[in-house]
Amino acid sequence: MIIANISPRSMGKTTDTGMMAHALHEVGYPVRAWDADESEHLTQWSLAAGNFPFPVERNATATFSTDVTPLADGVDVVDVGHTENHPHIADSVLKIADLAIVHMEPSMADYQRVTQPRTSTSVADMVARSAYVRADRKAPPVWVLLNRVRTGVRSAGEIRNMLRDAGWNVFTVPIPALDDLKQATAFSVEHAARGPFGELITEMETKGLIKRG
Ligand SMILES: Nc1ncnc2c1ncn2[C@@H]1O[C@H](COP(=O)(O)OP(=O)(O)OP(=O)(O)O)[C@@H](O)[C@H]1O
Ligand SMILES: [Mg+2]
């Protein structure tokens, strides 16, 4: 299956994608990560880490959907180039994705850029229009993952409620701001499944969004 990780620029996609891929790998899923962003941040991260313990491939093109054959019994986790300047990549990945995850911080700024961007197509519209080009003519399920969540900051709950009121599915598990997280759990990329990304995988399994084997 393919998970498309999408958002406007700089909302935590690459960080969440890398962590999620590690967590999936650690709990036993066959994982392949895709760097579908021209900036190649995921590739650079993998190289800097001495190569992630699963393949990291590159395809930041409008032909992603025809170039890529999904793993039959594993998870392809795609870091999609941001939707503001590279909509052709997101359109192509969404054409074959089984799940789309929208990444954002629970702030008004991110809320507006996700729901009502003024100079680009919104992620909701991109997901909706994917239905017309997908084999089953149905858009993939979309879930919002809130990241950089700071404990004790009220706006996180408010933005979550605003998203839900506007019809978005929002994961219950929050990804804390990493400085908080380090103190709490000594979280690292090698032990991604021990932290909130492990909880996220459990939530995805519980909701039937991903399946083992
Ligand atoms: N949980 C987190 N806690 C603290 N900082 C974070 C967290 N997640 C991401 N960041 C920081 O936020 C910034 C944006 O993250 P990232 O590069 O993952 O976003 P992106 O959506 O991939 O950006 P781009 O659209 O440019 O590819 C980076 O500086 C990153 O280190
Ligand atoms: Mg990125």
- The number of helical runs is 9
What helical percentage do the residues reach? 25-40%
Query: Strands across the major sheet, in which order?
Result: 3-2-4-1-5-6-7
Number of domains: 1
Residues in β-strands, percent = 15-25%
N/C terminus separation = 11 Å
CATH architecture: 3-Layer(aba) Sandwich
In the CATH scheme, the class would be Alpha Beta
Small ligands present: adenosine-5'-triphosphate, magnesium ion
Question: Structural class, judged by helices and strands?
Answer: alpha/beta
Principal-axis shape: globular
- Major β-sheet, in short? 7 strands, parallel
Got a strand count? Answer: 7
Structure description:
The chain is α/β, with parallel strands linked by helices and 213 residues long. It has a single domain (2-206), classed as 3-Layer(aba) Sandwich (Rossmann fold), CATH 3.40.50. It contains nine helices and seven strands, in the order E-H-E-H-E-H-E-H-E-H-H-E-H-E-H-H. It has helices spanning 13-26, 41-48, 64-67, 87-96, 108-115, 123-130, 155-165, 178-185, 196-206; strands at residues 2-6, 31-36, 56-58, 75-80, 99-104, 142-146, 169-170. A seven-stranded parallel beta sheet has the order 3-2-4-1-5-6-7, with helices on both faces. Helix 1 crosses helix 9 and helix 4 packs across helix 6. The longest helix has 14 residues, at 13-26.
